[in-house]
Structure formats: C-alpha cells, structure tokens
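Sample A.
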Amino acid sequence: SIAHVNNAELGRTLANSDQEPKRFIITYKEGHAPLLPLSDTLGGSSENHFVIGEILPETAARMNETDELYVEEDVQYRLIQPINLDGDPEEKLSIFSNSSSEQNSRLNLRSTEGNPYGIAMVRAPQVSRAWMYGPRTKKICIIDTGYNYDHGDLPAAGVSGYTGYLNNHIDWKQDGHGHGTHVAGIIGALNNDRGVVGVAPHVNLPLHIVRLFGGGASYVWASDVISAVQECVNAGSNVVNMSLGRNGEPMQSEINAYRKFLYDDNVLVVSASGNSGASSNAKFYPAAYENVISVASVAENSLRDSFSTHNAQVNLAAPGSHILSTFKNGGYTRLSGTSMSAPHVSGVAALVWSH
C-alpha cells in the first residue's frame, strides 16, 4: 500500500506559513512507500525505508499523523576530535603532520617495529593471526576522514573504499586530516619491522573505507551516517568502526537502522562513546543506542581517562590515551580520545569472530 498525504491541504500550509523549510527524515513502513508532496527528494535509503526532504515543520507534524510515516528532523553529526593531553605532540591539536622523517625523530621511532601498549592491553597477540586470513576472515569498515593508501605501514591489497554522493565524490585513498589513517593503523598497521603494529596486522587485511569527513564540511547528516553504514554492509563488512557523534535525543529512524544492521545484516557497529567525561557525560549517539557497541577510554594503567564519556550506555573500555599509530603523509603520531579506543575493539572483534 501507499501512504497518501493530502497535497492540497499541504499546499495551503506552504502558502500561508512564515516558517522556513527544514531537512527531515521521512521513515516509512516496509511495503508502504510514501507518495509525498515533495518536488524533489534529497536522497534516502530503500534498505532502511526512508527518504530525505526539505519541508516545513508544521507539514512534518501533519505527516506524522499518518500511521505509515514517521517524520523527524535530520540532525548533524561531527567527527570526535582528539583530546590534548600532556605527552601528545603539538601537531595533534590541529591534526597537522610534518614530514615523516621529522615526525619519526620527534616521536623517537626506531627502525625496528614498535608495539603500542594498547595491543598487549587488549591481548591481541594471544589470538592467532593465522586464523584471520582465510575463508572466515571478517571485513572491517572504517567510517572516518579517509585512508593514507600509500602509507608503507598500512595494508593495501585487501582494501576497498567508497567514493560517491555521501562524500562529494572525494577520493577515499587520501586523508589530509589524519584521523582516519590513525584509526586504521590501530586496527591493522603491518607487522613489517618498521613503525608500529596494529591489532590485526596483515598485508591482506580486508578493510573498506568510507570517507565521510574531510571534504570541507564540518558536519554530516544523521541520514548520511545511516547510509554510510549501509554502504559498509553492501560492501560485505562484518564490523563497522565509527568515531563520530552528537548529543540530543534518540531518533526512530536511527533506532530502526541500527537494529537492522545487527539483527538482519549480522553486522557489529562499534562507536566511540565521546569525550565529554569531564563535563556533561551526556548520552552520545550513535554510541548510546542499544544495538551499537559504545567504547570508553582507559589509560595504560587501566584506569578510566578523565575525558572519556562513561555513562550507562557504555559497553566496553579500551586504550585511548597517548596512542601511537600511523598518520597522514606517511608519518606517525600520538593521539588521545575515545576515537582511539573504538578501533581497538573493532580489531579484536574481527580477530575473535574470524576464529
């Protein structure tokens, strides 16, 4: 059946209203594709049963009166920026990298490979890596700022990525920001006698990169985040890692989507809990959703980092302070934040699941 909306009545509302249109997510029940009073939609997801449209708030309220539709304002998500801690290089504040040689000198990286403390802390070496690279290998999807594809300490052979409307068609193999490359190194920096080693190091580690940030915009929409996770699912990913979020209230479209990802698609979504532990410690979405693994941060002494959000929605904690990993321009740097904790969990999840 089709959800009908009275176009004539809504037309009168448009003509008589002094409100400005806003961006809304219009969720419909499966099998109930809506017939909407929209001259054009801004996108949507057939797999998650929603479309995006710019409509008046009072129009959205009237549409919500139908049984087949749920209309809610699309909201903004932002990348979780690292926290400035004593001992982190000052480049971290602006996510700026000097040349690789300069960075390596400042970080005292030797020619032999280093094992960041987080790798031992999550006991990754106790899981045989040989199990991970066969028929049962699990793919990890990273939704972030891109991937330094030419970095000599990161896998390339098994890495794929998305370029399309979600990221303004920017190249996923580039990362001028550095955050995504740092996350990727925590997960899979190579065991190659140089730089650092990741939780699941292998030249053929299957990764899928969705570069959602880094195209000049300071935020993305909630609907874009859902579509980005769906892209991970469509690419055959088993684990999705995210370091983004927002405060505010839960959204039904997101509740539906993350439930589907877990129970229908059999995909584990892992998200940083947020860095508001020293202030509001408020719920931070999508980590706060029931069907998302929320990861807080602990230091090398296993105590919770003061910056880490630690509310009742947190499921796990992992290393997140002074984490040494790969960075843009072929370099390395230390960053701190729950953004560094989440990929430890994503890597371990893929390792264990591959057994």
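Sample B, a different protein:
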Amino acid sequence: MGQVESAIQDLESDLPPQLETFDLKGVAEKIKAGDCKRILVMTGAGVSVSAGIPDFRSPQSGLFAKIRARYPDDEMLSRRPECVFDLAYFQDVNEAPFYEVSQEIMSEGYKPTPTHHFIKLLDDKGLLVRCYTQNIDSLETAAGLSSEKVIAAHGNFDGARCLKAGKEVPIAEFKEAVRKGDAEGGWRDLNKKYGDLVKPDVVFYGEALPRRFFSSLGKDTAEADLLIVMGTALKVGPFNRLVGQVPFNCVRLLVNRDPAGLARPDNTDDDTMSLPQGFVFNDDKNVRDVFHQGDCDAGVWELARLLEYRPPSRLMDTFSSDAIPGSDMECVAASWVGDLERLTGQKAPAKQSAEKPVME
C-alpha cells in the first residue's frame, strides 16, 4: 500500500464509527434515522442476472465463458474474451461476436429485477442522487427511473450510428437486423446498406466514457452520504474509482456474491490488485464499510424489510418468483412475509406463484 493510501486510511480511522453495526441492519438504522438522504448507487451485471441476462465473468454461465465456447479457434477471444467489446477487434478483426452477444442482451423479454425496482423505490422516496451503472441493458429506465437519474457509464442500446461516418441509424432498424443474425436482412445487410459498420451506443474498450459521466461525477460523489454498490467485481476503471471518491464519512455498502473493490485484497501484497481508497471490510480501521454477501435481489429485499418499507401489494399473492429451497431469496422472502402482518395488518398468503414481486 502506498504512503498516500495509507495516510488516507489513517484519516478515515480518526473518524468515529459511522454505523452502530456493520451489516444491513446498521445501514437500515442509519437511513431510518435520517442520516442518509443522498444515496448514490453503483451497479454491475449482477443486478440483472435474475432477469435472465448472464453476467460477464461467471466461469460457466458468464458471457465471456460463452464467447470462448462459441469461438474456440479464435485465439484472441480464447485468451481475452472481452475483446468482443474492443473497438479495434470489432473494426479490424471480426464484428460477428459482438452482434451475437448483442442479440442475447437485447432480448425484449428481459424485465427489471427486484434490485432495479428497489433503486426506483429509493428515488420515489427522494433519497437517490444518481444510479451509475456499467450495464448496457437499460433495465433501470424500464423500472421507471428517469434518464436524468441514470448514468450508463458504458452506454446502452438506446441508439445506434455508423462507426466511421457517425450517421445515426434508427435503433429499431438496428435491433431488427441483429435479431435476424447472419441471415437475410440481418446485420451484414444492415452494414452493406449504410456502407459502414453499424454500432450501438455501447462504450467499447478504446472509446471514451460519456461526457455526462465525468461532468456529474464530482458533484454527485461530493454530496453522497451513502454509497450502495451492487453486482459488480469492480474490475473496470474509471467506473470502479467512484468507490474512493465519496466523502470519508460516507457509509459504503457492497451487496455482492464476493468481496470486490478492496483497498488491499486478502492474502496478497500485490498493490496492483488493490483499489485506491477501496473497501476495508476486515480491517480494524474500518469505520464505514459494510459487505453483505449474497445475491443482489435477496440483499435489497432484506434491506427493504429492515427499512420497514411497505411490502409489495403482489406479495399478497406471492412472495417468491423462483425461490430455490434453502436459497437466500427464499429465506429473505419468508422473513419478510413473517413481518407482513405487523407491517400491514394483513395476513400472509400460503400460496406462491411464478410472478416476481416488486417493492413499493
């Protein structure tokens, strides 16, 4: 750890503990006390997994694993599957993998998850400063968040244009061509029509992030008194640097299957693996960082329950969409239903259906 980073942690450790307990209950109590009124949210692919969209880095089911399996003879993709989002690879080597991945991500059948609806709930309560997302699926706005409240750091499929000429291409035309794949009327014919590679407004490696990301970043982070990070490995910069740019007394919550964005990862002395001013969960100097391990949906369900936010009206008919016996989601749903009568005066139903509940 460098001298500057060490000095910053020393400054943080001089602060009193910002939470009574370093868990979801402690975060909930802080919000209920009115001490967290400016909440900044960061999300990654993990928040969309329950919608059916695979994340990128899961070793078996992630998009990168699928890319390796589809193109076993492509040495570049086998070695570095993220090349599918590399501008030079797309432009000069092979555009087909990106269009295939786009076809999977753009499915109209994907719906916002409980995590997306929880973020909208924070906005409805006047607590959300902004949601910064790495995702390109636009499920935040599908959940009802205004475009003003969402910064898609890596772009999305809301627009498309010719790569070289910059000519705008109707997004409906682009999506239709991608859905048809390599067949007649597909993406190859679309590129021929425009005499150029047609690319959605997704930020590739080798491209700058949207101006709005940088113009909003300073003010948003300076105002934050709670940072909630969900469903991301925090591997990609500059997005991951947001973690270290909030004030020293800003509470930081990570909801994720694994620890991420650590100031110093466990069991390593390699500073290159650390995130400047990152999380310090298992450190005596920690005064503000909370790690809740598990699925994003289960985490926000539990946080909503602890906050005593009104359970969803559809919870009267169902409290679990596809809860697996013994899973985090089933345990949280059962706990929330157990508090249903106390919170709403209504009896919890015994029947479950397949519909996914939404926080209200």
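Observation for Sample B: The mean pLDDT is 82.
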